[in-house]
Design goal:
Length: about 190
């Protein structure tokens, strides 16, 4: 059992090192040797857990995306009204991006690079299915604008990444009022005006 835990700890250390190095240096300036050194393992150890750098990055992305969406949907129930469901999911996403900024920053990096394989991107999108289903229901009910899910995400969710980055830089501090204002802006950007 101790050997299994040690193996899990090494793999987790590699994932954590990958996230930190990619966040600080970018994908291309993060060689496997630096990841191994930061994780305090030999470079050969990486290949016990991952086939290559692409596999390591893709699996890290999927794990972080799964943790992100698990957190986002933890208190969501598909029986909620569209507005209530969106508010709960949006606020949980905001909370994750602010509390888990290293993981959230890694996802931002992944969203803006060709380094993530198309297979992994599709796997990542599957984790967002409850939100996509909520938006689809909202479109059918005439509550959400009949826009592409990409546009809805760009207007309603992506601004949180910008706010997270400026807060991390120390340029702006989000308080409860700012979060509420950001939510209201997100909701206003996707709801049908009546």
């Amino acid at each position: 059992m101790a050997k299994l835990q040690k193996s899990i700890d090494k793999r987790n250390a590699l994932i954590k090192a990958t996230i930190e190095l990619v966040n600080n240096n970018g994908f291309h300036a993060t060689p496997m040797s630096k990841i191994a050194k930061m994780a305090n393992v030999s470079p050969a150890t990486i290949y016990l857990y991952f086939d290559n750098k692409q596999d390591l990055v893709d699996k890290t992305y999927i794990e972080v995306k799964a943790a992100y969406t698990h957190y986002a949907f933890a208190t969501y129930n598909e029986k909620m009204s569209v507005e209530e469901g969106f508010k709960i999911v949006w606020k949980r996403i905001a909370d994750f991006k602010l509390k888990e900024s290293e993981n959230a920053m890694f996802l931002v990096q992944c969203d803006n690079t060709p380094m993530i394989s198309e297979t992994s991107r599709k796997e990542g999108i599957k984790h967002l299915q409850p939100l996509l289903d909520l938006w689809n229901r909202g479109k059918k009910e005439g509550i959400i604008k009949p826009l592409s899910d990409y546009l809805l995400y760009a207007y309603a969710i992506n601004p949180l990444s910008f706010l997270m980055i400026v807060q991390k830089r120390g340029a702006f501090t989000l308080d409860k009022t700012h979060i509420e204002e950001a939510y209201q802006s997100a909701w206003s950007s996707i709801k049908v005006c009546k």
